[in-house]
Amino acid sequence: MKGINSEFCARVRQLRRDNGISQSELASAIGCKQSAISMFEKGDPTKLSDDAVERLAERFSLKIENYRSEKPALPARQAPMPSRGFCPNSACPTNKAYEVEGHVLYLPDRLRADPAGGKFCAFCGEVLERRCTNCGAPVHDGAICSFCASPYIVADC
Ligand SMILES: [Zn+2]
Ligand SMILES: [Zn+2]
Question: Which residues contact 142 (CB under 8 A, 6 or more apart)?
Answer without folding.
Answer: 107
